Every structure is written in C-alpha cells, then in structure tokens.
C-alpha cells in the first residue's frame, strides 16, 4: 500500500469513527481477561502489512471508551475538538522536538507568543513560562523554584544540613503535590494539608496558624499552593487572602496556584475577579488546556511571575543543569532562547500547535464562552439532583463538579450501592461517571467538561442512574 493509499484509509477510518462517536454505546465493554482474548495481542504479524495495521487500528477504536459520547462525564477532559486535532496531526506530520529553536522554529515562536499572551492575562509582570507535560509537572517545577529560592544552594548542595522546609496545600489538593514533595526531598510529612471549610476551600485562618507554628518550630514555610478548582469538589481557594497572609505573618513564602482544572478562568477579567482574585500577585500559576477545553492531551502551561526582581530568570536558574551544550546554544539577536533548556525533559512534544490553531479558530472569547457554558450546565445538573427525591447532593456545587449519590433504602450500603450503579452503567455502555471519597463517604462525581453533552443529556444521565438504582434495589427486595 502506498503512503497515499494509507492516508486515504486513515482518513476514512477517522471520518467513520468521528461520525459515530456521539451515538450508540459509550463502550463495547469486556472484562480484562475477555478483552485480552479478543485483542489477541500476541497474534503473529505479517511484516509490513498495512491491511493488518488497519485491523489493529479498528480494534483499538472498537473497544476504546468514546470520550466524545454525550454520556461521558467521568473525567476533566472529553472529546478533542477539531481545530486542535488538526494541529495534533500536523505536529505529527512534521515530527520534531520543541526543545530547540533550530529544530522547531515555528513551534518555539508560537509557544513564546502564547506564553506572552497568558502572562499578560494573568497579570504577571515581566514573567516567563513554559509548556510542561501537565499540571503535575507544573506543580513540581513551581515547588522546585520555591525550594531553590528558599535555600540558596539547594540546586548544587542539596538539602542536607539545612533547616526543614514546609509546604502547605488544601487538604483536598491534587496528589501531584505529595509526589513533588517526595521528588524534591521536602518529604511528604512536610507537606501540610490544611483543612477545608464547608465549601472545600482551604481555611486561611488555619493556614496562618500552621505557618506560625512551623516558624516557631524552627522550620521554613517556603511554599503555599492555592488550588483553583479542586479535583473532587471544584473549589477555588482564596488567593487574595493567602497573598495577604504574607504581611500578616511577616513571612514571604512562594505562592503557587494550581489551576489544572479551573484555572482557565484567568482568560476573562470577570471570571478572574470572581474565582481567582489576586492571581497577579502570586509567584506561579499552572493550568491545563487538555482538560475542559478539548485540546488533545497534553497541553499545559506553567507561568512564573517576574515581580520582586525575579524577571525572567527563575526557570533558567532553577532548572538548567548539566552539560547541555551539545544541544542548546543560547539566545542571540536573531534567535530566541531554546525552550528545552528550561524544561525537565529533553525531548518535547510540539504541544503548542494544537492550542494555537484552536486559539485562532475560537478566539479567547470562544474559550471563555465554553467555560461559562459548562458552568451553566453544572448549575442545571445541580438543580436536577436537588429536584430528584431519589438523589442527594453530598456537597454544595462550587463550579463544574456535582457530588451526589442515590439514597440507599434501609438495608443497603450506600457506598456499595452507588459503586454498583456506576459500574453497571459503565459496563452496559450507557454512561461513565467518576467516584470519589468525600467526608468518608463514596460520592459520585459528575464533571461537566464535555462539549457533546446538552442539558437533555444531563437529564438522561440522572434518569438512567435512578432507573439503575431502582432496578438493583427492587431485584434485591424481590
Ligand atoms: C487540581 C489538580 N491539579 C493537578 C492535576 C494534575 O494534572 P495533569 O493531569 O495535567 O498532570 C489535576 C488532575 O486532575 C488536578 O485535578
């Protein structure tokens, strides 16, 4: 088969898949052992057979979860949007690494262009930034920059013999914070989890007490992370009040914002004021476009504020290490700095093109509209739960997360019942929704991040959930 024929088969396959992704079953489910049998991964292969290659590709799509299905509510991301998908395919076509200007000139310019746009929107003066592999990585680099700012020689001498460093996060912060504390030699026990209020926001009064207690104990409080959209509840920590603590405690910690989920509120002044007031006075900010904005994975930014005399020097001084002159040649009047020099990886996927095309296609207003539409849909979903006598809301809605469950009749374990309902809906290919633990109870976590879903799909989801709950409890009672 020629490349031209292979392309035409590929486009035919893609067109068929895309046309059917919103309908039919969400997944053609098989238990793992059955699936392994069906896939027969060890089957002998005919060398260089495109026909066989397309059979594998068809199989892959047949048994995958259709994340563009309107009943996919499971994760913070769903269907990839078309402009971004075109960007992803063109990136692959011109396969390169975005580590140097020489190997990726257009990608480097695009990345720098959007970093500058985002620095301006975040209110960061003379700042810098980079695309990373996701907010887990963004959180790690931010904590690393904070560590190196707090301990002058941490990069060269390590932390041996230094005063213990202590970091503070929302008790419901993402687990990537624990991983960062582990990787960076801070120690997970020095990551203090601050209890949350009834809305899931870090309690700033407790944070203040904990910072003072750490200082009294001779430790260095070096890092506080606010979460802009917590994983389970979608809560936004009070950035402005955390900024104000610095003066109150007389202590200048690094203030990072983990906006993996809800951070793109910063694209609008109005939304920033509502959800993230004070963002411009923080030290660093990470956010994902591969979550609610439909950009294929991964698409993340980490921005560093240039205030307090740090202008444009943090990433270089924090990250650049080792003998890299075989690859990086620095900047001159003609050529911008290589982005790979301030990245934790060497090879870098050209993540920018997919976002750049979507940015030009939808405009900033299109991204803001999407954020606002999802908020409205989440509000509608909350009203559906409140109106259904069979369901209960487990936490007030803060943004895009609806935590609810089916009320278990007497004699049923509510946690088990809800897990079973959820699993049955998944295995039957009806709907896919997440689970979590909230105040010691199993919660069903519905996330609004899917452009294919309408209000009618929200209603259909709850109807299916209730029907399944009744079916299970009726069958057990019979
Ligand atoms: C609040 C928060 N922070 C960080 C992350 C990690 O993001 P990523 O998957 O981009 O590494 C997540 C992922 O769900 C998250 O919810």
Name every ligand kind in the structure.
Answer: pyridoxal-5'-phosphate
The CATH class name of the largest domain reads: Alpha Beta
**How large is the count of helical segments?**
15
Main β-sheet description: 7 strands, mixed
Could you give a short description of this structure?
The protein starts with a helix and ends with a helix. The strands form 2 sheets. A 7-stranded mixed β-sheet has the order 2-8-7-6-5-3-4, with helices on both faces. With 478 residues, the protein is of the alpha/beta class.
Describe the structure.
With 478 residues, the chain is of the alpha/beta class. The protein has 15 helices and twelve strands. The chain has helices at residues 3-20, 32-39, 50-63, 82-93, 105-122, 135-150, 154-157, 176-183, 204-216, 239-249, 269-275, 314-319, 352-387, 414-427, 455-477, and strands at residues 72-73, 128-132, 165-170, 191-194, 220-227, 254-259, 284-288, 300-304, 391-393, 401-406, 432-438, 441-447. It has a seven-stranded mixed β-sheet with strand order 2-8-7-6-5-3-4, with helices on both faces. A five-stranded mixed β-sheet has the order 1-11-12-10-9. Strand 5 (220-227), helix 10 and strand 6 form a beta-alpha-beta unit. The structure holds pyridoxal-5'-phosphate. The site of pyridoxal-5'-phosphate has 14 residues, from helix 6. The site of pyridoxal-5'-phosphate (PLP) has 14 residues, from helix 6.
